[in-house]
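Structure tokens please, single chain.
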Amino acid sequence: MDFQSLTAKLLRHKITEILRPHRFQWSAKRMHHFKNLVHTLRSTSPADSDTMEYKMIGPEHSDQVIEHLRHNFFADEPLNKAAGLCQNGSSCAELEDHCAEAIHHRMSVMAVDVKDAGTCKIAGVVLNGILKPDDTAKALEKLDSSGDAHFRKIFEMLHRHNLKHNLFEHFDVESMFDVRILSVDSSYRGQGIANELVKRSVAVARKNGFRLMKADATGIFSQKIFRSNGFEVFSEQPYCKYTDENGKVILPVEAPHIKMQLLYKAICGDEQDDNAKTH
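Here you go.
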């Protein structure tokens, strides 16, 4: 019996055990017990099982990675959905160029499921890039020539927020490790893959001598993952307060996603010092 089947069987057994004596009357104590059980089962899922391999992404993987993103991140990411940028499986030239640029930096990681002999499937990716002080201003200027209004709407908010809340000035660094996209295939979610991808990105950043990592986390789930890996909130942009001149919300993001968070993580030479802040 594989892990997922065993987990499902155990979960059904425990639910019955919890509910039967109380005829579906959930006490606070038993609700707490049930939530802890679900959390434990999820946290012990096989993010690094025998069939899951984590590899660095190179230019030779671009087509596979983009195809994964078309069916997952492009359609599911909260801002993309709010702006109507992409439909599931469809392409978006400017967003794909944004991804290809990150891949070119050779700092990205993918999770690959190799359980079927001779075949492999991308279960998740984290696209990382190198960010320099003038890059965001140049990217914002480049948006003026963009022919995709939906793409402009998203990245104008992100770029302007980063320029207003300037990590380069605050931490006095010459470059940053930029975690740009975190995506997990819908059939692999809840197995700890995103958490492992972020953890491995921290290792890549440290190995390459970066002092600071940053991420624009647009959804509640990615925000929790980053914070669990030692990232701290530098600034926030509530979506309901990002409005046009008439007071209309520009990006009506669906709940439970209510804000974008600019997060950072200071990197020191020793793994034990990861939570130390740079001054």
